[in-house]
Amino acid sequence: MPMPMPMPSEMNGKVDINGYSNPNETAGKVILCRAAVAWGPAQPLVMEEICVDPPQELEVRIKILFTSICHTDLSAWKGENEMNRAYPRILGHEAAGVVESVGEGVMDMEAGDHVVPIFNGECGDCVYCKCEKTNLCEKFRVNPLKRGMTKDGKCRFSTKDGKPIFHFLNTSTFSEYTVLDSACLVKIDSKAPLKKMTLLSCGVSTGLGAAWNTADVQAGSTVAIFGLGAVGLAVAEGARARGASKIIGIDINPDKFIKGERMGMTDFLNPKDLEKPVHEKIREMTKGGVDYSFECAGNLDVLREAFLSTHDGWGLTVVLGIHPTPRMLPLHPMELFDGRRIMGSVFGDFKGKTQLPHFAKQCMRGVVNLDEFITHELPFGKINEALQLLVDGKSLRCLLHL
């Protein structure tokens, strides 16, 4: 096992990567590095020395400097969806790093650029990318079943004896080096603090974007957020920034309420403490229901409460939680005739490569408070401890230093 690489340091946003591979020496070659490999459902991740191939056409190889763990990583690690089980596999999709080398045809990035991977890519050329009504991409949209690279279906990871290691969500960031399609990588301002930019890969962009882009929360409006993980709290931060007058947080973990208040929430409800359904309590508090509700728990019963908590005539429910079960929506079609609407949101409806660089600059200006989302920091080698923190509900984002 190689000696651990030195941790990156940041001065005024710029990253000191002394001690990392020199692109002039490694470009076009296989790199040996550490990765946290999943060998089976719910098994501890194993630190392995793996081989990372050079990037092929329109691909980029990056050095991961920071990565964090999302509930989507957690559910994949647990193997909650049988169709998503593929082993060995490198999970992870929230990260920030530096470009090591680029493949043929990559024109918008070069070695040394600061970048953020995105699980929902943007090629810029397909009919979807050219449509202002969606942030999906024909080739690079989020696909949990995808196991290799788009161009040839092969893996760019392998064990030292040549066994392929599968990819995850277009990114696979639980590795010191990873290879991505260039459509799934965003170049950001070199002055942006990469440590915080990790959050833009998924959680913060998904939640805040749902408030800004999907729902377009208006000043003075009322909001209910069901599930106060990182995504739910990002919704609160987005609603606060838009000037919502009442932001109600709903969660069965009372510890989440303290954090929620710092993120702009005005009221809190614990369903376990109520003698009536949550939606009835919310309707009482808001004289008929909230303007917007956000379901961030991945629970269909919670989704129904979120839907019924909105005001008839104009209420909008945005679905953000991941629902792994085969159960269908708990709604009768006629309930939609009361004017309430329901819709899903992927990556907060951000077009990653087009819009994320501007969002990163907004974060640099303090429009969004990212510090509150990072609750723990650990070295990469303690990734299983970070997983357990999320399982126990003790962390929002545990930042891992590679």
Automatic annotation (TrEMBL):
Pfam families: ADH_N, ADH_zinc_N. SUPFAM superfamilies: GroES-like, NAD(P)-binding Rossmann-fold domains. One of its GO terms (cellular component) is cytosol. Residues 230-349 form the Alcohol dehydrogenase-like C-terminal domain. Residues 58-189 form the Alcohol dehydrogenase-like N-terminal domain. One of its GO terms (molecular function) is zinc ion binding. Keywords: Metal-binding, NAD, Oxidoreductase, Zinc. Its cofactor is Zn(2+). GO terms for biological process: formaldehyde catabolic process. Homodimer. Belongs to the zinc-containing alcohol dehydrogenase family. Class-III subfamily. This is Enoyl reductase (ER) domain-containing protein. It comes from Nyssa sinensis.
